[in-house]
Amino acid sequence: MNSDIEKILVSQEKIKETNVRLGKELTKDYADKNPLFVCILRGAAMFMMDLVKNVDIPIEYDFMDVSSYGGENTSTTGEVRILKDLDTPLSGRDVVIVEDIIDTGYTLDRLIELFKTRNAKSISIVSFLDKPARRIKHVHVDYVGVQIPDAFVVGYGMDFDEHYRNLPYVGVLKPEVYTTK
């Protein structure tokens, strides 16, 4: 897998530093609350598990599987589909959406609207990566881990065709890997 990576954008050490920093920020901002962290599967699972280890307050978490990509696509379709919904009611809750990467903003725009209709008390977003060059829908990201350039990235939970999620860093996938499929 490593031979398919053009370059490493976010090292293991930077991942750890980022999770510590974000965990401290969330601990401070949610000190007197009982937030519900909502992990957007599958990409954000690794990030969420590392992140919550650095949050030093009581929290709850749940998982939601949402997709605007399909199979071997490297760009969004724009259509957001809920594949697995939450088990936890949102009414009256302070919700922290945990996302692996903010790209076009379609997914988060849809989720924010959905969570508002479910009467969430507050909604904030923490994203490990932010790729502002591809933003179509403007969404406010409250906590940003690392801002990256417009490149197709994999690793640390992010995939191409369900591969590369287990890389311990975030790397740029060589174009010949995804353009020959």
Description:
The structure is a single chain. It contains 4 helices and 9 strands; from the N terminus they run βαβαβββαββββα. The protein is of the alpha/beta class. The strands form 2 sheets. It has a 6-stranded mixed sheet. A 3-stranded antiparallel sheet has the order 1-9-8.
Task: List key phrases describing it.
3-stranded antiparallel sheet; HGPRT; 181 residues; alpha/beta; Rossmann fold; 9 strands; EC 2.4.2.8; 29% strand; Hxn_phspho_trans; 6-stranded mixed sheet
Q: Summarize the amount of helix as a percent range.
A: 10-25%
Named at the architecture level, the CATH assignment is: 3-Layer(aba) Sandwich
Order of helices and strands: EHEHEEEHEEEEH
CATH class: Alpha Beta
**Order of strands across the widest beta sheet?**
4-3-2-5-6-7
Number of β-strand runs: 9
Q: Please tell me the total number of domains.
A: 1
Keywords: Cytoplasm, Glycosyltransferase, Magnesium, Metal-binding, Nucleotide-binding, Purine salvage, Transferase
Protein name: Hypoxanthine phosphoribosyltransferase
EC number: 2.4.2.8
Enzyme class: transferase
